Amino acid sequence: MLEERKEYIQQQIDSLGEKIICLEAEMKDLRAILYAKFGDNIQLEDEQNNGE
Question: Are 34 and 42 in contact (CB under 8 A)?
């Protein structure tokens, strides 16, 4: 029972990791589109993270 639960949780972690990768890629694409449209008139980067 414990092993099954651990496996289920690991699957959930893996699934969420994949979603993070997809969302980060989508954010990168959207950021590029917005900067192409608005140039330096917008600031999308977080000042604390310096765009990372």
Answer: yes
Q: Are the CB atoms for 42 and 35 separated by under 8 Å?
A: yes
Longest dimension (CA), the chain: 56
Q: How many CB atoms lie within 10 A of CB 26?
A: 10
* pLDDT tens per residue across all 52 residues of the chain: 999 999 999 999 999 999 999 999 999 999 999 999 999 898 888 766 555 5
Q: Distance from first CA to last CA of the chain, Å, rounded?
A: 41
Spatial distance between the Cα atoms of 24 and 28, rounded to a whole number of angstroms: 6
Residue with tokens 């694409």: 29
